[in-house]
Each structure stands twice: as structure tokens, then as C-alpha cells.
Description:
The structure holds two protein chains of two kinds.
Chain A: H1 3-27, H2 38-53, E1 57-58, H3 71-92, E2 96-100, H4 105-119, E3 131-133, H5 137-151, E4 155-160, H6 166-176, E5 179-184, H7 190-196, E6 199-202, H8 205-213, H9 217-245, H10 250-255
Helix pairs in contact in A: 1-9, 2-3, 3-4, 3-8, 5-6
Chain B: H1 2-26, H2 30-67, H3 77-98, H4 103-135, H5 141-157, H6 160-164, H7 168-203
Helix pairs in contact in B: 1-2, 2-3, 5-7
Amino acid sequence: MAVQNVVALAMLILTCVSIWYSTYRVSQGKIPLIRKLPAMDALEEAIALCAEKGKPAWFPLGAAPIDDPQGTPGHIITLSIMGYTTKFAADMGVKILSGTIRTPLIPMLDDVLTEAYRAHGAPELHALEDIRYFPSQMAYIAGNDTVHKYDQPGCQIMLGVWWAETPAFCEIAKRAGAFIIGGTDYIENVPYLVAFSDYSLVFEELYAASAYVSDDPYLKATIFGEDLMKFLLLALAFIGAIAMAAGFTDFAKWLAM
Amino acid sequence: MSVLYRRQIPLVLTVFIVLVVLVKIFIPNPMATYWSVMFQQWSSLATGVSVGLGVVALLSFHVPRIMRMENEPIKFQWFYSISTVAIMLIFIVVGLGLGSNSSQYNWLYNTWYAPISGLICFVSAFYSVTAVYRAFKIRSWEGAALIIPALLIFLYDAPIGPYLFPPLGPIGVYLFSVITASAFRAGLLSVGLGMVFIMIRTVIGKERGYMYEEEM
């Protein structure tokens, strides 16, 4: 096995160990605290705003495909948060409209919305036609304009991996006066969402969001494990900087995939 | 049965496929490679099948409006719905009948789709400009810290900037190669780590939001 693969395997094992250690701490009664994520607390506010105005909520998914290395975790988290948001929507009688350009996500979206509405006693609030399918990224931008013009959603929740459609989506929503909650792990578009959104999540906050809204202490514990790994990576970066300055370039090669 | 069908089977499949792919990466062997390739083909097949669902979703929105000759939310909505469905059917018929590489399909694509797509792409450039305008309002010291380097980069990128004010060259290079690069790498690192943790949480069955559960 190449040195890079050995290092990658070692990092994967260390990651698993950090998760095991963090969940072990929970079994010892040490539940980690996650700092406030205002964007997640604002989900209820966004749905309440829709209920007040008698408007639907617009929860489109990012354009990344589900089989993309970044798209998969992004969509998994977004679907988790959509389920959580639907709880409020069902309680307040708000319809959630969603949209995607990726057909494999349609059954997943339909499943999450159907089950979440049914679980909270409002199955009549969801139908397949509430999931809008747009065949391309540019059609998605035009479709977003149409949704804001005719369905007039009270809020737009943009979480996940957002690509080039981000500025157009944000600007259209802002002009329509919608309350925006945004969050992406796609680094190039983070500034757009921060500039436009009323509340935003940046970088890995998105990945912590599903643990934040969950009641499962073991899921929250994994965030502690992630922080442990961050310290390890910081140490490696520091050692790497010294090694490179000392002319030991192999260190960087070992860590590169 | 429902729990088994909705949660356990997808979870077992997810874990199994992830393990096969991991074995293929870290302990390469013909069996793992074969199954890994096989799963990728299944993924392509599932994506192909799901396109049908996209068509169903589109039709479930437009067909009722056509049947009711609906004028809501806009006048002649039924006509727009007919045109959407008709264009979709034309593309499907030509694509399936003559192939997506045929000259007829290419003509349809280049004549109908490409200009509209290009137009929307162009319009979204204006959205980016207004986004910058919204972002470029100094409301706090942090805002000023964002805007001053951004203006320097603007001037650095404009050919006339370094010509009129030569120190902009090294300032721009410094901002790009030191400040931006370090922030970018920190973000990249944290996102990468977050992705790994999400995947592990999914594999061990802790992250189950993609198959909604009431007790979540």
C-alpha cells in the first residue's frame, strides 16, 4: 500500500477512535454542549413568519448531485433539517415547497416530507406537486423566480451544496422580501449566503446542524470527536510548516492523497 | 415490516456498500473492485430510473392545470403548462427515437435550450453585481475589514489599478496568496473533516435524517 493510503487509513482509524471516545464520554454522563447556532433556532421563526402571512415556505435543495463527494453529506444533512423544519410547519399549518434539479432526490424529498407531515398529524399539507423538478441549473434560477412571483413563499431556506445558482437565488428571494436562512459548505458561495441571508451557517457548521437539532446525545457527541480531530489536524499543519521550512518535503507528500 | 423496509434495509445496504468501497481503496483486490464498479453501475441505473420520477413530478404539477384550463396563478397558465409538457415530450421523443447525439437533437438543444440557458446565466451575472452591492455596506468594523481588502482586490484586478498605483501589485498578491489562501484552506479542512464525520455517522446509523423518523 502506498504511504498516502497508509496515512489516510490511519486518519480514518483515528477518526473512528475519536467518535468512539466521544460516545464513551456520553455513556459516562458527559454530554457535550454545542454552542448556539442562531440559523437553526431561526427555523421556527421562519415557519412562524410564513404562518402569520399565510404563505408557504420554500426549501429548495442545492444543485450538487447526490453522488458527488460533497453533495452526499450536504444532502443528507439538508434532508435531516428539512424533517426537523417540517415539524414546525405541520404544527403551524404551513406548506413546504421544495425544488431540485436532481431526480434521485425526488423520492427522498417526498419520503421525508410525507413522513414528517404524517408524523405530526398534517398529511394533507404535502403532495408530490409541491416538489418542483427543474431539469437544469438555469431552469432552476428561472423557476425560483416563478416560485417567488406566484407562490410568494414567506421564507427561503437554502442549505446544502449550492453552486453557481446561489447569487441569483439569494437576490430573487431578497427582492421578493423573503426571510432567508442560508448555509453551504461550498466555499466559493459562502460569502453570498453570508451577505444575503438573515441567518447563515458557514463551512462545517452545516454538518453540526443536524446534531444540534437532534435530541440524540450520541449524535451531539460526534461533534466533540470532530473537534478533537481538528486539534490533531492543527498539530499536523504546524509540524508540516516546520518540516517544510526545514526542507523535509516528504512530509507534505505523505499527507497528500 | 415497515421499520425493516424503511430503515433497516437501506441502512444495511448503505453500510455494506461503504465497506466495499473502503476495502477497494485500502486493500485493493479483484473482488472488491468488481463490486465497487458494479455498485457504481447500479447508481447510474438508479439515476436513470429516477429521471422518470422527475417527469412524474413535472406532470403532476402541469397536467391538472391543463385539465382545469387554469388561469391561476397567471392568466393562460394552462397554455404555459401545455407548452412545457409539449417541449418535454418533443425532447423525449427525439432523444429516445433518434439518439441524444443525433443532429436533430443537437439542433433542438442548440436552438431552443442553449440560448435561453445562456440568457439566464448572463442575467445571473447582474444578480452577482447586486449581491456585491448588498455586501459592500459598512455597518460595522468587521464589515469594513471585509470591504477594504475587497476594494484593493478590485483595483488590483483592474488593469488600470496597478498602473496608477504600483504598490497595489504586491498588496494584491499578498492578499490572494496569504490571507485568502489561509482562510480558504482552513475552510476546506473543516469541511473535509465534517464530510468524513457525516459519512461515518451515516455508516454507524446515527445520521438517519434522509429516512425521516419521528423520534429524531
